[in-house]
Amino acid sequence: MADQIPITSVAAGAASGAVGAALGNPLFLIKARMQAYSPALPVGTQHFYKNSFDALSIIWKTEKIHGLFRGVDTAILRTAIGSSAQLPVYNWTKNQLVTNDILPANSVWTYLASSSVSGVCVCLAMQPADTALTRVYNQPTVRLPDGRLQGTLYKNLVDCLWKTFKAEGLFGWYKGSTAHFLRIAPHTIITLTANDIILGVYKNLVLS
Checking CA distances to 48, which of 72, 115, 120, 141 falls within 20 to 30 Å? Predict the structure, then answer.
């Protein structure tokens, strides 16, 4: 089984994650705000939008481009961390299972086991930044003299993590870890397992 250079996997994962997070930030922001909105049980600062298009329109009218990309630095770091861990951990685990004769190289069970370990590591690595991102998205804002809206609780990712740590300790960073794991693990398992299965089918077709 061909080995991949770890630094290449880390760099490629981080770069692709950063680009994806930057481009997807407006919709991720809207998703977080719409999920947090509840007239009965409000969570954080409430933002009422009829739908995603209404949200885009309102944010653009009130905050312009700055509003759509609020928290983008945190989103980039969050996704870059998760993506940089995903593939290297998967490849390392798969190599260990195969070289130690625990599972065969081209077994679906090898893919499933390796991607499961990867999913756990991605969740652990990404969770603090994920918590910070949600709080940055939902914090109250105040309008500055230049017309921009600025968050009143957190200045940036580091400020959010530090204030959370001081107020809630280390476990404050890992709030919602179970729900996050149940979301990210199936995504990681299906993506990586399907990728290897498809590659295997493709190679068989080419070689035959």
Answer: 72
- What is the identity of the amino acid at 166? K
What are φ and ψ of residue 155, in 5° steps?
-85, -40
- The rounded distance, in Å, linking the Cα atoms of 51 and 104 is 48
Q: What is the DSSP letter of 61?
A: H
pTM: 0.79
What is the tens place of the pLDDT at every residue in 75-95? Answer: 999 999 999 999 899 999 999
Summarised one tens digit per residue, pLDDT across range 156-205 is 889 999 999 999 999 999 999 999 999 999 999 999 999 999 988 888 88
Please give the Cα distance from 177 to 162 (Å, whole number): 18
User: What is the radius of gyration, based on Cα positions, of the chain?
Assistant: 20
Of 82, 72, 93, 70, the residue nearest 21 (C-alpha): 72
